[in-house]
Amino acid sequence: MKVAVAGCCHGALDKMYETLELLQRRHNVRPDLLLCCGDFQAVRNEADLHCMAVPAKYRHMQTFYRYYSGEKKAPVLTVFIGGNHEASNHLQELPYGGWVAPNIYYLGYAGVVRFRGVRIGGISGIFKSHDYRKGHFECPPYNQQTIRSAYHVRNIEVFKLKQLKRPIDIFMSHDWPRSIYHYGNKKQLLKMKSFFRQEVESNTLGSPAASELLQHLKPAYWFSAHLHVKFAAFMQHETNSKEELPKATKFLALDKCLPHRDFLQQIIDVEHDPNAGDSLEYDAEWIAVLKATNSLVNVTQSTWNMPEKNGLHAKWDYSATEEAIKEVLEELNHDLKIPCNFTLTAACYDPNKPQKNMEPVHTINPQTTEFCAQFGLTDINDRIQQAKEEGSRRGECEEEEGEEMDSTGSAEEPSEYNTDNSGLSSFNPDEIMLDEEGGDEDLSTCSVDPSPDHPPEFSMSFSDIRIMPDSMAVSSDDAMDSNNEELEKSGGSNQVEEKSSTERSLKRVGGDENGNSGIKKIKRRNQAIYAAEDEDKTD
């Protein structure tokens, strides 16, 4: 079957679907499935706009609301993950995934589904070390911190995905797996985007959590977006035993939605089960993993390490047994079809009756209620509501409860992964420029161009084969960077434990002992990128 893959569409659904229809008319190419790698912007109304972490000038309604209201319907089944520019209050209603509009399915914080026998997984958000071990505690109305932390990846989602044993065909993440740039045309990437050089050379560009998943899952395809630049890589994985067959991953980072000539290069042919139906289906192993890990759900700000085999946990393997998978199949009577149970949960934008003062509310979505009841799972939003009510009755705020719990439990245990203690560089372009100023990189140049002597096939975009190392985690020195962003925001108040390590971190990125020149450098970079984006919009 043909699968189209899109980068950040930023709510421009009309443009994206019109591009696909143009492809069909001009090239007789019609995809069976469309995947979107984040920054989908499922904005229903003015309240949703207030829940997007972007500067005011980028808060535009765009066209998703027409699909939400039923005025239009997506012409192709669309599956997407969340990025860092989303209506977080809307997506938060569906932590386990669900329909945001007819024929448009969100994978949730993390998820795996099947379509025509093809197994598709994904993880939403971007990596941020200081939020990685927290629970999903945020809910609207958000403040300046939670409007950002709401889309930060959490260790529990990575842990769940690492319990999977069966092969994954396609996987999506919004930010790139760290180190992936070493397996493609890195020279061309740095030639076109020179401000990536520092992060690439120090191996701090991208998500270390995504790197762990890439190494564990070894999917046939991995798609990302976020940096607004097209980049391809081919990664040959090491085998764990002589009996294991070699595996390789084709990686492609997508630019934002582009004209049809570029979209044509982002349609791939994927082997599928010809006997499978045309409905989106649950994945039995994933459901079994959700059931097995349900007791690990955390809705507080307290940091929490996932179980590991270190003598501190009675259980650390939460992978699904064949018996557990069989039980899931029996519960569903072997009918894995995801019900088309989309429900309106908020008023839809009316261009004739704008409501600029509409405020977001914390909503429990009936799809999530039904899903949790069917499989015996915790409704995260319901748990958050309960925590808020209990805190209100005790006259205590939720933040105080989180601080109290921080001193107990497993918060002081060693990290479950190497990535728990390694942060992105404080001046990483895929993090700071988004969180500090809310803008996006406008990188529109393809890093690996197809040869003019060959058609623009997906396989032609990949460069030399290299063997993946045993671990793509960064060294312990990089762990010093995990608090740099908070230092920049607060002047180094309570986020830095030792002055000396902070000074060393700032010196590594080229600043003086107070980090001043480094901060000015990233702000100049931001201004250049924003100017480029504004130029694109006026062209």
TrEMBL record:
Coiled coil: none annotated. Its main location: nucleus. Residues 235-381 form the Lariat debranching enzyme C-terminal domain. One of its GO terms (biological process) is mRNA splicing, via spliceosome. It is found in: Nucleus. Keywords: Hydrolase, Iron, Manganese, Metal-binding, mRNA processing, Nucleus, Zinc. One of its GO terms (molecular function) is RNA lariat debranching enzyme activity. Gene3D superfamilies: 3.60.21.10. It comes from the Eukaryota. Its cofactor is Fe(2+); Zn(2+); Mn(2+). One of its GO terms (cellular component) is nucleus. Residues 397-406, 432-443 have a biased composition (Acidic residues). Belongs to the lariat debranching enzyme family. Residues 416-428 have a biased composition (Polar residues). Residues 386-539 are annotated as: Disordered. InterPro entries: Calcineurin-like_PHP, DBR1_C, Dbr1_N, Metallo-depent_PP-like. Residues 386-396, 496-511 have a biased composition (Basic and acidic residues). This is DBR1 enzyme. The keyword Nucleus applies.
